[in-house]
# Entry
Amino acid sequence: LQIQQIVCAVPGFIGYRALENCIKCGVDVVDISFGPENILDLHDLAVKHGVTAIVDIGLAPGMPGVIAGHTNKTSKLDSIICEVGGIPVDDYAPYFYKAPFSPIDVIEEYTRPARYKEAGEIKEVNPLEDEAVRPSAFKDKYPVEAIMTDGLRSMLITMPDVQTMAEITTRDWRHLGVMRGMYHSECFNDDNIEATSDTLIEAWR
# Structure
């Protein structure tokens, strides 16, 4: 069997290596993984192997970048704010959340520094610190809060003229309160992250 194309939909912590191996095998690939690495570092490798690799093309990262990129071509944007996320219909206490995608990547949203752009400069903020809180377009209708997360990815590089840029993720405000409590209790530090992940993955299954 000769594989012609691959859709790569693995957890973010192995996404870059999986994509790199697909390219080395000379297989065209579409990738939706949410990893911390700069995915554009694989450009030269893809050219070398004659591979088309379409990356960061899930729901988010993915569609916000496509929409923003298209709009920027026609309207020349000064600012891009992508609001993503969601809340479950039911409460699902005590975490007030159900993961619609890889639970380990949901945890990554809270533990990975969120990159954003302000006055043309790329900066970072911890998603669970107060500085990461941003206004949500939905706060008047739903009990939500929005925080900056690390979903801009290649947009930070491929649209250099846009001076202000951020991804904000909307969650039930109670959920983010629980996550902040766990963060300040050091549940996400190196010694405890494995046990914390096991607990949350089981709860969000």
The beta strands are 5-8, 28-31, 53-54, 79-85, 114-118, 121-125, 133-134, 144-149, 164-172. The first helix runs from residue 12 to 24. The chain has seven helices and nine strands.
